[in-house]
Design goal:
It is built from eleven helices and 13 strands. Helix 5 runs parallel beside helix 6 and helix 10 crosses helix 11. The strands form three sheets. It has an eight-stranded parallel barrel with strand order 1-2-3-5-6-7-10-13, surrounded by seven helices. The chain has a two-stranded antiparallel ribbon with strand order 8-9. The two termini are 16 Å apart. 41% of the residues are buried. The chain is an alpha/beta fold. It is 43% helix and 19% strand. Helix 3 links the parallel strand 4 and strand 5. The longest helix has 19 residues.
């Protein structure tokens, strides 16, 4: 967990590769200074648990997380076995990220009912309770590397999911985007993010000082490519959100020092000390990490 003066930086791997390519990019992430290697959980991407075990075998210090598991895809008891075994194989470096899923097409492909947002969140809570119960049971095997299991990162945006995260998680990951009824995402503006952070802090209560807030950065835009970025997203992002792009914690524009200053300002305003970028931005963001070391 980051201290009040430190950040944690993660990279979420989203591109499936051969074994050798996977090993290379995990080693490179560690060399570039990332603190966490994450694996997304979508159809067409690498299977999270084998990928994290392989990452652990080829790195030394980074933590490893599922960012985030599509929980409705998993039986809770079988998931407990996967989590505990993986945590043991990676020697306690696992951070378990959980989410409710939002891509309707993936549910359809897997033959799993998409259900309502409320029903998916209810299933996540049932799963969390099952994991906690099993990890506290000395008769359950395999046992995770740490008593009680790995720390939980729970990601979401709506009231139900953020309330659940505030109750159980060590890290509350705000997506910075709201799920639509069609099973997609809508990028949120700074005022909406302010409101969501306030909601989380109120839900956390006395736990607020001990729980990290994470934000997933959707794009890192180098200096000189600002106009190109704005043109590309003009039709995909609401005009009022695009107009406030310099305030968005989900989009980082500028050179390394400028972005580092923006991260400090975002932490002051929103409380985000744990920053995750997507794999395509891994190299672009690396000089920003160097500004903090």
């Amino acid at each position: 967990m980051s201290s009040p003066t430190d950040f944690r930086f993660g990279v979420n791997m989203v591109v499936p590769h051969s074994r050798d390519e996977w090993v290379h990019k995990c080693r490179r992430a560690e060399q570039l200074g990332y603190d966490v290697i994450g694996v997304a959980d979508h159809l067409g991407m690498a299977p999270p648990f084998p990928a994290l075990v392989l990452a652990a075998e080829n790195t030394e210090r980074v933590r490893l997380n599922t960012f985030v598991l599509n929980v409705p895809f998993y039986n809770p008891v079988l998931l407990a076995r996967e989590v505990a075994g993986t945590d043991r194989f990676v020697q306690g470096r696992l951070e378990l990220g959980l989410g409710a899923g939002y891509v309707r097409a993936e549910f359809d492909t897997a033959g799993i009912p998409f259900g309502s947002g409320a029903s998916r969140v209810e299933y996540v809570e049932q799963t969390v309770r099952t994991l906690c119960d099993l990890f506290a049971d000395p008769g359950f095997g395999p046992q995770p590397a740490r008593p009680g299991g790995p720390p939980l990162l729970i990601g979401g945006w709506g009231d139900r999911m953020l309330t659940l995260a505030a109750r159980y998680a060590s890290v509350v990951a705000l997506t910075g985007a709201a799920a639509t009824t069609a099973g997609g995402l809508r990028l949120a503006g700074p005022a909406e993010i302010d409101e969501r952070v306030g909601f989380v802090r109120a839900a956390l209560g006395e736990r607020a000082a001990e729980v990290e807030l994470n934000i997933l950065v959707q794009s890192v835009v180098p200096a000189g490519k600002r106009a190109e970025f704005l043109d590309r997203y003009a039709s995909a992002v609401a005009p009022e959100v695009l107009a406030a792009v310099d305030e968005l914690p989900t989009v980082l524009l500028g050179g390394p020092r400028e972005i580092a200053d923006r991260l400090r300002a975002n932490r002051e305003r929103f409380g985000f000390g744990y920053i995750t970028v997507l794999e395509p931005d891994m190299d672009t963001f690396a000089p920003v990490i160097a500004e903090f070391r």
